[in-house]
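Weekly modeling sync, notes
Attendees: AB, CL, MP (scribe)

Item 1: holo prediction request
CL wants a bound-state model with adenosine-5'-diphosphate before deciding which constructs to order. AB pointed out that an apo prediction alone won't tell us much about the pocket. Agreed to run with the ligand included and paste results into these notes for async review.

Input as submitted:
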Amino acid sequence: MLLSFDPDDVRAAERPLLAAGVPLMDRAAFALAVHAGHVLRAVRGRVGGAHVVLLVGAGNNGGDALHAGARLARRGARVTALLAAPQVHAGGLAALTAAHGRTLRVGADGPDGDAPAGDGRAADASGGGRGGAVADLLASADVVLDGLLGIGARGGGVRGAGGELVDALARVRAAGGGPVVVAVDVPSGIGVADGTAAGAVVRADLTVTFGAAKPGLLLPPAAEAAGAVETVDIGLTLPARPAVARLETGDAADLWPVPGGSAQKYSRGVLGVVAGSGAYPGAAVLSVSGALGAGVGMVRYVGGAGPQVLAAHPEVVVGEGRVQAWVLGSGVAPDDETQRDRVRAALAHAVDHGEPAVADAGALDLLPERVPAHVVLTPHAGELATLLRARGDDVARADVEAAPLAHARRAHDLTGATVLLKGAVTVVVGPHGAVYAQGDAPAWLATAGAGDVLGGVLGAVLAGRSADAVADPTLPAALAALAALVHGRAAHAANPGGPVAASAVAAAVPGVVRALVGA
Ligand SMILES: NC(=O)C1=CN([C@@H]2O[C@H](COP(=O)(O)OP(=O)(O)OC[C@H]3O[C@@H](n4cnc5c(N)ncnc54)[C@H](O)[C@@H]3O)[C@@H](O)[C@H]2O)[C@@H](O)CC1
Ligand SMILES: Nc1ncnc2c1ncn2[C@@H]1O[C@H](COP(=O)(O)OP(=O)(O)O)[C@@H](O)[C@H]1O
Ligand SMILES: [K+]
């Protein structure tokens, strides 16, 4: 599991070590220089002679970049530091200057010249170009180390001279080629704790993060700015509970309901599916496909698409009966009152009798005011905005897309449900601070019906672990993240690197599950 921690937790973990004189910045800078060295060898063949540009802000994040730059300079790299603040980390600046790195102060008027080392003050000096000089430097760099802002960032992108550097770097990259960008701890400008990415934000190819990942490296939309993430152990002891977690391959086997030797279909879990309608029979078929692909004990289908479901899946039982979990609402048309009544009844049953339920699409507006966490909502951004508006919030789809975690959390707080918010990175919020961010899927998965398959996969897992999911209110969030992981991997497996239809995703689910839980 990839765990991330809020800046406050990271600072609290650093404090006793710093008080004891542990050289945390040295550890961070050493690891950063090692990773930058790997990148330089990959793009240039060697560190010696390579051109490295440091973007340096006012804080310790800039200090990391300067110390790492000094190490690279000592290995023969040509290092130029662009100082975006009047005062930068004194020790880092001294180290870089001692290693014969160059420093240029940048501000509203462009680069001002070499800054003296020693007191960390980047005073004006003679020499240095203006105008396009920064752009030329960035364009000629092999690697840029982004040390403008770390966990001390306060929202809304990089402001001031640093923001201008971010824009200049973006223009260089947009023109084609350009340097490999390595972010120090986090891409500068992201919302480190909430994953927002407004204003001037560095787009990195690699982020080298210290102590533990930060939430913004996992959460949308900021996660996209991080590139690959390398976590460096600098010896921090962090709390047991992360801010945001991401399930990985090794986590699936413990969570998945693998049948024991004495299993029979009822003990493995029966899933009731109330999905599809005259207008959308395909949603019922796809939802059932996802559930069967995930290995549910049995599916009972309830609704008007029985013939289509049976034609595709003769193993399904059509009609009501006892179930251990539900999938509700996929493809249920707003004017299909009969099917909507069935969804309402199933939701009430799920709440009253402790049966986990997936509430998708057409079930979202039928939700009771409050539900337990074993009811899992699976909206996309537009549906979540609608749900929040129905509860009095003035929110549009774009607001949800700009801050998915905040809005998923809001929906959880308002309803009590576990919330799985679909997207390029799927965010899951449950009670007691359970938050997951899964970025497992190719963009090809953004195709009609893919969400129905996800609902089926999740329903199967909830049916297989029904009693556990009711007893432990944080488990549905973990199982929802697990379903997103399997669903995303199935999209890859169905046609690596190419387009997929929702039914092909469902067909790939059994193989993905085998790979994850097979001995
Ligand atoms: N505490 C430590 O000893 C360690 C800290 N480390 C590094 O230190 C970083 C944190 O350093 P700091 O606490 O100094 O904070 P930062 O280096 O993240 O920056 C804080 C500075 O940026 C300014 N600032 C904040 N938001 C801004 C914005 N939106 N636009 C422009 N300027 C803004 C603030 O006024 C402040 O001067 C970590 O991310 C990590 O890179 C590492 O060296 C590991 C050890
Ligand atoms: N850019 C993207 N990259 C990867 N996966 C995506 C992207 N956009 C959407 N998805 C995933 O594709 C699926 C689409 O589901 P949904 O929007 O409910 O479609 P439908 O209602 O047609 O089934 C979700 O699982 C979502 O997480
Ligand atoms: K940074």
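Recorded for review: The chain is about 40% helix and 15% strand.
Action items: CL to compare against the apo run; MP to circulate these notes.
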